[in-house]
């Protein structure tokens, strides 16, 4: 088994103290207080931005990395590394759609740039690497965050700290959806209509990946919602049947803290003219927005979700 060689340097452009490594290193801080450049003289390595081979992973092959953080888009210094042994022979890996080797499965012996297109698999949550060393990527065409897999059984990527790294783009083929940056329909909400979102985080100003989503049913008929100035349906109230781009101008209401949606599906916005953070409202009574995780927000405009989003 042939091992590689990598040299780490404290400063950019291979300056400052250095440390040479030809095997795995679980904690770089034992040798260097920081690392800003490195040189791979032979072989290949997986480097990590956390000790003990945790955190984001980056693949380095032979070459010079004078400022690897800028070159590779890293936010943190290298904290640990693994040497990837040279492998000669066949490659075999079995991938599973669900954790604990459940759901649809397929055996691979070569590269696969898109499991959805090749196998009609929507996800991969566990695997068994029989032969060779592999890199798994969160996006198709070998893009996005990666994970190094050496021979062994991996029954849950989530337990390995890889939770929430699978969704970076999406396509709405029909209908409308509300997506959330927290599980169980919590956190910031974003409205998606039919279209392609190749990098939705940049396109929509999101800081976190999508963690949950709701399909918005098609509604044909009238729209009715009663809004209240205070919690528990208190204070001034007004009934809406169409869009309202500013409740302060139309109704002289300074805030909206509860509502009753009688018909249709609505979006409420924290600013006038349908701007700022939003909240999806389906038919029902909402007596306290604060208890729904919307503390500190007020809603100043409302819009109907019509069939025009299809």
TrEMBL record:
It comes from the Eukaryota. The keyword Repeat applies. GO terms for biological process: lens development in camera-type eye; visual perception. Crystallins are the dominant structural components of the vertebrate eye lens. It comes from Champsocephalus gunnari. Belongs to the beta/gamma-crystallin family. This is Beta/gamma crystallin 'Greek key' domain-containing protein. One of its GO terms (molecular function) is structural constituent of eye lens. PROSITE patterns: CRYSTALLIN_BETA_GAMMA. The keyword Repeat applies. SMART domains: XTALbg. Residues 4-42, 43-85, 132-174, 175-217, 264-306 form the Beta/gamma crystallin 'Greek key' domain.
């Amino acid at each position: 088994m042939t091992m590689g060689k990598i040299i780490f340097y404290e400063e950019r452009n291979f300056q400052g103290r250095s440390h040479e490594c030809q095997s795995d290193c679980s904690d770089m801080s034992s040798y260097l207080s920081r690392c800003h450049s490195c040189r791979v003289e032979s072989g290949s390595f997986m480097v990590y931005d956390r000790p003990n081979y945790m955190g984001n992973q980056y693949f380095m092959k032979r070459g010079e990395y004078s400022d690897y953080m800028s070159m590779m888009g890293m936010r943190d210094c290298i904290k640990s590394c693994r040497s990837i042994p040279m492998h000669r022979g066949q490659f075999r890996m079995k991938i599973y759609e669900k954790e604990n080797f459940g759901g649809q499965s397929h055996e691979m012996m070569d590269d696969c740039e898109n499991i959805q297109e090749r196998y009609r698999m929507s996800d991969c949550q566990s695997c068994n690497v029989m032969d060779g060393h592999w890199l798994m990527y969160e996006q198709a065409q070998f893009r996005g965050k990666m994970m190094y897999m050496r021979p062994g059984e991996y029954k849950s990527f989530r337990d390995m700290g890889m939770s929430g790294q699978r969704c970076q783009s999406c396509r709405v083929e029909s209908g409308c959806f509300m997506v959330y940056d927290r599980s169980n329909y919590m956190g910031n909400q974003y409205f998606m209509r039919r279209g392609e979102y190749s990098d939705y985080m940049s396109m929509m100003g999101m800081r976190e990946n999508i963690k949950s989503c709701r399909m918005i049913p098609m509604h044909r008929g009238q729209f009715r919602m009663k809004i209240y100035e205070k919690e528990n349906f208190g204070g001034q109230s007004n009934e809406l049947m169409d869009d309202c781009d500013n409740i302060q101008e139309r109704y002289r209401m300074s805030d909206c803290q509860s509502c009753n949606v009688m018909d249709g599906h609505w979006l409420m916005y924290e600013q006038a003219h349908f701007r700022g953070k939003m909240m999806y409202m389906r038919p029902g009574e909402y007596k306290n927005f604060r208890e729904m995780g919307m503390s500190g927000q007020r809603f100043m405009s409302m819009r109907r979700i019509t069939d025009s989003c299809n």
